[in-house]
Each structure stands twice: as structure tokens, then as C-alpha cells.
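[audit] Reproducing an earlier prediction to check determinism. Same input, same settings, fresh worker. If the C-alpha cells differ from the archived copy the diff job will pick it up downstream; this log only records the rerun itself.
[audit] input (355 residues):
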Amino acid sequence: MRKKTTISLILGILLSVIALYFAFRHVPFRDLTSYLKTINYLWMLPSVSVALMSFALRVYRWQIILESAHSISFWRAFHPLMIGFMINCILPGRVGEIARPAILKKNENVHFSTGLATVAAERVFDVGIMIVFLVILLSTVQIDPKLDITFGKYHFNKEALIAVGSVTFKLLILLLIGLISVSIDRIRNRVIDLVMRSPSLLFFAGPDFKGNLQKKVCVPLVHFIENFAAGLALIKYPAKMVACIGLSAVIWGLAAFSYYLMAKGCPGIHLSFNELFAVMLITCFFIALPSVPGFWGIWEAGGVFALAIFGIPAKEAAGFTLTNHVVQIFPVIIVGLISAMITSVNILQVSYEEQ
């Protein structure tokens, strides 16, 4: 596991270095530092406050998703969520997604696979709302149809963005079908029956081998499927589903408003709320790529590209993106570290032991 983590980190560093080069290759360091001196950093305060409000709503949404399997208080959900997001910012491989259900298992005695299923459900809501908003925004904001921005051998334009959104939407549908299938009792029982019967297909193997395979592989896999399905019990409650969809829309709206507030203090970033909302969503698609902890490089490349779509010059785009990156992740790291101290969570241990 450590070898895989090291490889992931090395690949992330290489990709981040390449992304940083393409993001800042047209911005002299002196121009960037002079622009950073012109920013009104007082706008960081309301921007950070709104961003943290969005995380509070994430906690409430996670409570609703968890409620079907295990009910916990706001603060007992708040700490694992913030620790998970903090770990994503400081360790490679997005192990924060694994750490959160690990903390839930340790502190609340919730099966790891059940907690993991609730995190997966969260991501479905997030990606679904992101795609819906991106399609709406790209059809309403003004983008030059002749725009063609080059990153190495790749060409990015409006058609490319729509294509990426379309592919992501199709993948989301497949994931949603899979999650719904696991949560339906009849389908799940059929899958479990197939898993338990699978050793009998090995006609060339002896009875002892088949028995060990069923005991050591099939039975644990069945337990995982059952516990994972418990975390998806939300699907059976339409009212909770609607509440989570509504909360997801508000969460991303607040995140975009945080961008908008920070832009108020950055000279040259004269974009509407909808345009900055699109910038944020495009940046999010970039940071889904492998990168170093904290998404350094990939975040900047996505932000500079997205701002270029709306005619923002390279210097202003680089300065705003870099500043906003700090505004968005450092409060999360600080709050996550405080939560780790309050709950006495060993960050490194909980990040790797469940893998």
C-alpha cells in the first residue's frame, strides 16, 4: 500500500508540475507578485465564512444520508467530515474519502462499508448537481465560439467542455444505476446468491479449496455488500432524497458565492456570479485529476483556463486563482486539524490502516 501511495504521489507531482508550467508560463514572477500586492485581502473574511457555511451544510446532508443506517449528532458528523477533507488537502491519493468512514467506524461503531457507501452517495449528489449547473451555465453565459486555448497538445474550447460534461454525465448515470441496484433487495439477494455459488463453478477444484474460497472470499464479500447497501438506504426515502438534492444545490451555490466575494477584492476580475460559478465548476473538473496534496498546479491550470474563457488576462487570472486556492483550502486544513485534536484522531494511522 505504501508503494502504491508513493507511485500515486510521484505521478501527482509530475502532473502538478506540468500543470503549474502551463498555468503560469505566460506570467512573469514579478508581474504575479505585483498583482498579489494589489488585492484587497479583507474580502477573504466573508469569502472564508461563506465557504465554511457550505461545509456546515455538507455535515447536515451527511447526517440525512447516515440517518437511515445510524443517527449521529451534528458535531459527531462534523469532525469526521472536516478531518476527511483536511486529509485530502495534505495527503496524496484522496485518502480522506477512506479516512472518514474509518473514523466513523472507530468513534460510532458504524461498519466501514456502510460509511463508505454514504460517502459514495454524497459524491453522486455532488457530481450530479455540478453537471446540471455546468450545462445550464454553459448555455447561458457568453463564450466565444471561436475560443481555442492550447495546453500542450490539447485544445480546450466550448465544445470540449460540453463533451467532458456529457461523458461525465453518462458515467454518473452508470454509477447511479449500480448504487440503486445494490440497494434493491431482490437484485442484491440475487447478487449475493451468485457470489456464494461461484466456488461451485470451479469444477476442477477440490471441496477443501472451494470451502476455503467461500469462507475467506465469498462470505466477507457478502458482508461488505450488505453493509454497503445499508449505507444506501436513503434511496428508499424520496423526501430525504429531495432534501439532499436541494442541499447539494445550496452547497454549490454557496461555494460559488465564496468565489464571487473573493473576486470583489481582486482587480481585473469583473465577472458576474454565473460566470464565476462556471469558473468554479470547470476548476473542480480539473482537480478531479491526480495531483499533489492540496491540488496545487491542477487547481491553477483549471482556474487560469476557466478565466481565459471569459477574457481575463493571464496575470489577473493567475493571481486570482492562486489567492482563491489558498482561501478555499487553508481554512479547511485548520478546521480539520482542530477536529483531529478534539477527537484525538491519528491522521496518518486512520488514513492508511483501513486501506
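[audit] rerun output stored. Observation attached for the diff report: The chain has one domain: 9-352.
[audit] end
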